[in-house]
Design goal:
It is a single chain. This protein has 440 residues and is of the alpha+beta class. The protein contains 12 helices and 16 strands. A 6-stranded mixed β-barrel has the order 5-15-12-14-13-16. Strand 9 and strand 10 form a beta hairpin. The radius of gyration is 22 Å and the shape is globular.
């Protein structure tokens, strides 16, 4: 999932950015399955989920079901009330590390979240680390209630994938190896839809003219440029723009639009060409093929007609990720992308899955990935009830982990207790900064 999207392409926030970094599995969309490991908590083997049904009418408040359970219908998911003892691994996570992500989401709280988030805001962003994991766990238990998320067919097992933010060197002028440009949006992007394809922008004079003067940054590897475009954002160390102390300035390129052409997997193209098999398809194999066939790299890249455009942003908070669809900076290991019709933005979520690992016929048993995260992003391939895209952070290690992440998943949504215990006014706002993200 690099550029994630299964994967396809993450959807951008309508106003701020589409930070959404996809995952390297994006290159493998339709290119076969990555190895799947069983989660620590025994659950049924992952089965292909049925097609996502049309949107259901959400219930305004929890309702008692014929079997006596308490359930809450969302547009694409059913939440079933449970207790903390039923949440696998709940007492093991360092939940204090997730507090700052929750606190940031609380800055956009509305409706049912206002009382809880008012209390959270008074404690401050650093309270989780200061007070410790047990204090945070007690606070969450006192204020929230867990709901297991399932689809309308009752299936509780889904899919966890991963994404990250690339980190590369770049230059403002084309020098030496740095010849591959990343562009600002063409001036006619809003009026010409769809805009030119990648091949047309490479070849047609009138298409090339639309990019003259729009060069924003140059990178040394065309595949890095593709990765950045699929990811939707990147950190760049600008080698020809130094700080007063002589160090390369670090900036972020944020999503600013695309050409409205469909995304196509270059890995799928390589498989169709007979260059690699489904089992061999990976980011490493793409780079290996490109190194062995430099004269055909442009042909491979043109197999994906989608081109993404960027704007420059200062990297003022290097310890935070790009801004997700909720309008909140993503936190490595504590932010996820979700289907907002299944889990509203800002919802704390408990994941029950496993750590990704390199495939091996003699692989060690998988380690559990059971932790508290916050729903702060979305993506074009992140659709359905039990579905999440895990933000690993930035750099090479995050790329590796994101590319390996394709795990069975179970999900618990944590919601304010007051709403869970009593019916709410149907007119009450149930979202939490749930602004509609424009489809990227």
């Amino acid at each position: 999932m690099i550029g994630r999207r299964l994967r396809s392409n993450h959807q951008p926030h309508p106003r701020v950015r589409a930070s959404l970094a996809l995952i390297i599995a994006a290159f493998l969309a339709a290119c076969g399955q990555l190895p799947t490991h069983q989660p620590a908590t025994p659950i049924p083997p992952t089965q292909p989920q049925p097609p996502v049904p049309g949107l259901h009418k959400p219930s305004a408040s929890p309702e008692i079901q014929p079997d006596g359970s308490l359930a809450w219908d969302r547009a694409r998911a059913r939440w079933v009330a449970t207790d903390w003892a039923s949440v696998p691994g709940w007492t093991q996570d360092r939940v204090g590390e997730a507090w700052s992500a929750l606190w940031r989401s609380c800055q956009r709280a509305t409706g049912d979240w206002l009382p809880v988030c008012t209390r959270a805001r008074t404690l401050g962003a650093g309270w989780g680390r200061e007070a410790g994991d047990e204090a945070v766990r007690r606070w969450l238990e006192a204020n929230l209630r867990p709901w297991q998320v399932q689809n309308y067919e009752g299936q509780t097992t889904g899919l966890l994938t991963g994404y990250f933010e690339p980190q590369v060197d770049g230059m403002r002028k084309p020098v030496g190896a740095f010849q591959t440009p990343l562009f600002r949006p063409p001036v006619d992007l809003a009026t010409r839809k769809p805009h030119y394809t990648r091949a047309e922008l490479d070849i047609l004079p009138e298409a090339r003219a639309s990019l003259i003067g729009r060069e924003l940054m140059y990178v040394a590897d065309p595949l890095d440029a593709l990765m950045i475009q699929v990811q939707g954002s990147t950190r760049i160390r600008v080698l020809d723009d130094l700080t007063p102390d002589g160090q390369p300035r670090q900036i972020r390129l944020a999503f600013a639009g695309h050409n409205s052409q469909p995304y196509q997997s270059v890995a799928r193209w390589l498989v169709d060409q007979g260059a690699v098999t489904l089992d061999q398809a990976s980011w490493g194999s793409i780079r290996g093929w490109a190194a062995a066939n430099p004269q055909r790299v442009a042909e491979m890249l043109r197999a994906n007609p989608r081109v993404v455009f960027f704007r420059e942003e200062p990297l003022t908070q290097p310890d935070q990720g790009p801004v997700g669809a909720q309008g909140i900076p993503l936190t490595p290991g504590r932010s996820i992308a979700v289907d907002r019709d299944a889990v509203p933005y800002g919802t704390p979520v408990w994941l029950d899955s496993t750590e990704p690992q390199a495939w091996s016929a003699t692989a060690a048993p998988s380690r559990p990935l059971q932790r508290l995260v916050v729903a702060q992003d979305t993506g074009g391939a992140i659709v359905g009830a039990v579905r999440a895209d895990y933000f690993w952070g930035w750099g090479d290690e995050a790329l590796t982990q994101a590319g390996r992440t394709k795990q069975p998943l179970r999900v618990w949504a944590l919601w304010p207790r007051d709403t869970a215990s009593t019916p709410s006014d149907p007119a009450r706002i149930l979202g939490m900064g749930d602004e509609r993200a424009a489809v990227k």
